[in-house]
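Structure (tokenized):
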């Protein structure tokens, strides 16, 4: 049996930009790898998650020109946690600004979780700008997916953690847990927002891996970026991704079904149940579903990482000279 692939070595950007996109927002944008290589856009999760150094390492640096950005309100983009003029339509428009700014005609889209959502939204608006997709942990922001995660669907599998997540919510508000968190996280009281950010992010991250790191859980829930990340995520979840209806992205696959895609899905993903990736694959003739046994949501789980790196290598063969 072939050994599992791992990330490419650490890679520093060859260019870093501050890109004003209007509405008071300024994006942090990076370019890494080979400037003459195959263009690929990395889209982080969350929303509000921001970039990490390892995000540059899914791609062969000799063959890829990697573009990465912190989306509105996330990471090093400013204002941190900013919700004004922060919708999916704004993010899609931002990606077009980034593409023009770095001088690319088309690019491969690589995104996981919310990154897969944004990749599909962007591609369905601009299919002529896309060469293909590597998507992980697919999420379409449908009511069933939000109810699974925020309305108790997942509770039977995570009873202890669900009770920790539920604990801050007054009993009278427990018929709408997402709404209760959203009101506190996006309200006018920063101390209250900080108190609610910790259990919100713990619930997010404890379900993001089959073996969550306790030290990492503590770090993400208490970091300086925690409140901003939680605000943006709750903002998008409460507004159901700012999509027209539950089927917008699924029906919109008709606009991209001619493009090749690899869909990498952990079979034990608690954040984004595998049925979503399966439904997408049924409507996408050129999509290959890679269901990873025993793996959860995180891109860093060995089986998921292996499939992602193999996918970018295969696209380098397909798209390269």
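Design, position by position:
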């Amino acid at each position: 049996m072939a050994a599992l692939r791992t990330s490419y070595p650490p890679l520093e950007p060859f260019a870093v930009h501050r890109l004003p996109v209007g509405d008071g927002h300024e994006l942090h944008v990076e370019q890494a790898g080979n400037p003459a290589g195959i263009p690929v856009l990395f889209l982080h999760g969350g929303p509000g998650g921001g970039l990490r150094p390892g995000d540059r390492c899914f791609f062969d640096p000799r063959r890829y020109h990697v573009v990465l950005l912190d989306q509105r309100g996330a990471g090093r983009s400013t204002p941190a946690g900013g919700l004004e003029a922060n919708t999916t339509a704004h993010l899609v428009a931002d990606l077009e600004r980034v593409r023009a700014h770095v001088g690319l005609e088309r690019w491969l889209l690589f995104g996981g979780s919310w990154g897969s959502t944004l990749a599909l939204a962007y591609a369905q608006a601009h299919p002529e700008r896309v060469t293909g997709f590597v998507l992980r942990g697919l999420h379409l922001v449908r009511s069933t997916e939000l109810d699974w995660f925020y309305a108790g669907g997942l509770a039977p599998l995570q009873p202890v953690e669900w009770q920790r997540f539920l604990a801050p919510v007054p009993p009278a508000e427990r018929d709408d847990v997402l709404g209760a968190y959203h009101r506190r996280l996006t309200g006018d009281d920063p101390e209250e927002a900080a108190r609610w950010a910790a259990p919100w992010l713990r619930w997010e991250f404890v379900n993001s891996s089959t073996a969550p790191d306790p030290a990492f859980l503590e770090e993400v829930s208490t970091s300086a970026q925690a409140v901003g990340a939680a605000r943006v995520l709750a903002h998008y979840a409460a507004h159901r991704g700012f999509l027209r209806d539950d089927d917008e992205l699924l029906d919109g696959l008709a606009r991209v079904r001619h493009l090749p895609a690899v869909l990498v899905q952990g079979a034990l993903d608690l954040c984004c149940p595998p049925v979503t990736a399966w439904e997408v694959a049924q409507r996408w003739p050129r999509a290959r579903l890679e269901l990873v046994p025993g793996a959860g949501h995180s891109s860093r789980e060995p089986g998921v990482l292996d499939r992602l790196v193999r996918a970018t290598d295969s696209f380098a063969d397909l798209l390269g000279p």
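Reviewer-requested clarification: The chain has two domains: 15-143+244-319, 144-241. DSSP finds eleven helices and eight strands in the chain.
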